[in-house]
Task: structure prediction
Amino acid sequence: MPKPTFSPAEHFGLSALLISGIFLAINPLLATIPLGIFLVACGIAPFIPGLGFFLPVISRGPSSRHAVALTFDD
Result:
């Protein structure tokens, strides 16, 4: 069975949640900063397609085979 891997967004989100928990013990107002940064990153990431923040981006394949892939998004 393949080992599950996390996307950069999941790593970032879990880290922001952990840091917010630590900040919550210090000052509840500080706990909003890491979560706010995560929300901003989630808002900006779709505009940088090569980043692969949410899912891996495959933009090239092997050059030995000539093919075209068409995708349709809802």
User: Anything to note?
Assistant: The chain has a mean pLDDT of 84. The helical segments are 8-26, 32-44. The two ends are 31 Å apart (CA to CA).
